[in-house]
Design brief:
The chain has six helices and no strands. The chain is mainly alpha-helical and about 120 residues long. α2 runs parallel beside α6.
């Protein structure tokens, strides 16, 4: 299955989890959606991708010579810890506001990549 398709499925899981009040799962799924989307585009362009969950590294690998807006880097940095924290942190309490932000940020990153790098349908 296409990684970008899986990414969009995970973004839908994030939205559904948000609606059901599963805020930790919404944040995890939002992170995963971005990760798989970036890896999918990298695979299409280069035939491979870095084996990491670090969204900043993936975005920088994908962008190459394209300047990533500073605000988008901040968005990626916000999402990065949710890969692990959403599942394992006993001290982090996930709230509606966290989940809403994670979903909005995932949508923003994917939209930027589509507009600036992945110009395929």
């Amino acid at each position: 299955m296409d990684l970008k398709k899986k990414a969009m499925d995970l973004l839908e899981v994030a939205r559904e989890s948000f609606e059901k009040g599963r805020f930790w799962l919404a944040c995890f799924s939002a992170h995963q959606a971005v990760e798989l989307y970036l890896k999918g585009v990298l695979f299409e362009l280069a035939g491979t991708y870095p084996f990491t969950h670090d969204l900043r590294l993936l975005l920088e690998s994908l962008a190459g010579d394209i300047q990533v807006p500073e605000g988008l880097v901040d968005v990626v940095d916000y999402l990065n810890p949710h890969y692990t924290a959403s599942r394992y942190s006993l001290s982090m309490e996930y709230r509606k506001s966290n989940a809403k932000r994670c979903i909005e940020y995932a949508e923003r990153i994917i939209a930027w990549v589509r507009e600036n790098i992945d110009k395929q349908p």
